[in-house]
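Supplementary material to the annual report.
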Amino acid sequence: MEQNSLLTYLILIPLIGSILVLFIKKEQVNLIKYFAVGLSTVAFLLSLVIYFQFDSNNPEFQFINKLEWIKGLNIHYHVGVDGMSLLLVLLTTFLTPLTLISSWSSIKDKVKEFTFFFLMLEVGMLGVFISLDLFLFYIFWEAMLIPMYFIIGIWGGKERVYAAIKFFIYTMFGSLLMLVAIVWLAVYAIGPLGYFTTNLIELYKVAPQIPMNIQIWMFLAFAFSFAIKVPLFPLHTWLPDAHVQAPTAGSVILAGVLLKMGTYGLLRFNLPLFPEASIIAAPYISVLAVIGIIYGALVAMVQTDVKKLVAYSSVSHLGFVVLGIFAMTQESIQGAVIQMVNHGLSTGALFLLVGVIYERTHTREIADYGGIAKLVPVFSFALMFASLSSVGLPGLNGFVGEFLILLGSFQSPILNSWWFTVFASSGVIFAAVYLLWMYQRVVFGEVKNPKLDGLKDMNAREIFVLAPIFIFIVWIGIYPTTFLKVSDKSTAKVIKQIYHPVKVSPVELGLNQSSK
Amino acid sequence: MFINFQEFFNVIPIIIIAAGIVFSLLIEMYSKKSEVFLPWFSVLMFLAAGLHSLFYTNDVSIILQGMLATGGNVNVFHAIFTFGAAVVTLLSIDYIKKYGAYFGEYYIIIQTSVLGMMLMAAAKDLFVIFLGLEIMSVSFYILAGMNRKKAGANEASLKYFLLGAFATGFIVYGIALIYGSAHTTSIDFITSNFNELTKNLLFIAGILLFLIGFSFKIAAFPFHMWVPDVYEGSPTTVAALFSTGGKAAAFSAIIAALFALFNGPAGNLFTPYLAVISVLSMFYGSIVAIAQTNIKRMLAYSSISHAGYLAIGLAAGNHEAVAGVIFYLAAYTFMNLGAFGIISLLEGKDETNLDISSYAGLGNRKPLLAGLLAVLMFALAGLPPFGGFFGKYYIFIAAIKSHLTWLAILGVLSSAISVYFYLRIVVLMYFKPSENDFAIETNNNAMIAIVFSVLLVILLGIFPGTLIDLVTKFI
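Predicted assembly:
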């Protein structure tokens, strides 16, 4: 097979970088910062190279790099991307340098350790999106918890310890059950294939043959782990704690990328590996997703803390993504993929803006603000822009994703009921209510809080961080085809895998094996 | 009876240790500088024996009229014991002065215990297992009470001795019953006639007694009562040896004696017993560890729960399980040695600073130590990409292959619980300010040993194939 090492380089850049950071003296704070930002920018440029070389007409995995790793278990270092994972890889490499720049002045303590963990986090996130071997995937999936745990626990807010432990144990608990399922799947493969394997591409052919009663359990083990990460109602309780306590950079990455790992997992593993179980489970999970949409929105409405409000809005928005995935039509899944990116951009921007203002006033209570439009016009404009993007104003990115998801779920043969769409649409209205109401209370009116006097507007660095995000928000809103076409063929392939799973007889597979 | 050259060559690791013990005794008697010289001699000896074992794993043979096996996984076990003992010795150099138990025999008794372990792993006859077990155990009883003036140490030693002797009684009784039914103590005979023999109830009873006796030695629930008290009362470095070498040796003996368990349907007879002690140990260890405030006791309970994970492998009883158990033991040995090593550095005179609150703020005070301990805690909790994770993974594969998926599920649930108490140490080190600024003196010897252990744990996690492929070759 032709090898392509670009993805390996992509993952090595932050990995080697984080190790090198350990050797820089901790007093040289600026050197560390420039180094990390420079390095993650290089990673972004490399991912752009991958993007331009990517053939979006090819539904298969590309840039495959497969090296022998654990011979006895037939485990390989096996990476590659298709349209869905490429978009998320781009999102990751795009957000990482921006968040590093955004925390330029807010992280004063232990910059070296922060940078180390942050780059490690990037390694873990990229690894999750590009792994094509379940064992490798699981390693990245779990290992990524460690840096995030430290980022919340060391640089977080008052309740950071509680939030960090809760985050860790919640996610760990879910993923351990997935580990058993992964092992079970690999052992199951011995039957039809004749050898133990965790190779995803081979398992795609084998797993759909698992008898229904077991397939359901396998589906649940994977789905449970991903649902915690998404988080799907009612497994979302770790999220507000983790989001609120994490430092700004942590929240941005958490909302922007980490949550997508859950939805990505559902799309990459659950649907193609266990298609029949997925079809059976789809209505139930969609109900939970719709509950999540409405519940998240209602709870967001009553929050007094801006950051918490944004956190609950994530529960609501991710509900849309899950609904899109389990509606199982081409439109809805395309919408889900683009909505993952959208949510990363708009919620990322909202968290960045909350961070900007928090750094100046050290409060996140909505009641402490009011009337800042006159004091900080640029900030107020940016907040408006990000809020509208999150609300789903036509012309901005959020609209595209939500529209496709609602359209797809309306036509879905699996859900077969337009009630899902009706209730989900109410989420869009609620989003307008809580975000615009928050905006009104924070930005308009008279300045009542004397502490707000002399509030400084966004500086050049902060504008520099947000500008690229806004460019993409508009771009996706006006001309989504650029992005939709990347994942088009890959999502079509998922649809095919669901409705026409490869049912290869053991004999045929046996022939494949002997021809190797 | 004479030994030909090849036989002699294959058994060199054991000879190195045995001869080294005699030589060390002489040094101790006649040299005034034995204090400086002995530990280094010990370390070199262990390394020589360990490296020899690793280089000649392919020389598989049975020697001394069917008494000892050499090569293959026996050598892998020998390497685990000797490298582990080398780490313990390095850790001890400064520790036992601080602890106030510098007696020349300390290092020599470590050597004898390692000799016992090596015999257990190499045994091809039940009596050799018994011989090795007693050499090891008696050495351990003495090591536990190394400081005669400390009440806690005496208690630990006595408790260990009484319960250990009790367990040995079970083992001997088991061997007697096995002999009674099989008319031999030759392991090869027992292995090849296992299916026949299990028709005899006496034989089954013998094997069960043998397993119960070893359940004490591996510290499995409900035979674990001695573990926390002995770990707490013994010198920290010695507790490190008990929890790693001692446990690994007991497992090596079970694998050596009962390889038939891993070979076929007759072995499944004992699966219920092994599965039950495995589940009980995992959960009891993980849950009770949460309530501990003394870090040595916490690690004692963690050791009980690790015995449970390892017992999953025994219950699974297939070839993957053997490989998994050996890999797990290798990883576990160095994780635990590293952790105990760091504890021994922080421990003050008179066994102070053993409370977990002493670790608060360590991340700021000693970044390197804290970083190493954090890696070890994550490894013990079974997180990738460290060695502990792969050990568990492999054992779960074995369990699922033997249709014991439920056991694997219970295993992961228990490790989810155990994450809590391992993480608590990390929380204290990094997220809490220091409460008590006691002096922490590190020394190069111990640091070398700890860094070596941590590097091994990381390498075993990232490149598990090297060891797994080696071990699998000989099963």
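The two ends of chain A are 12 Å apart (CA to CA).
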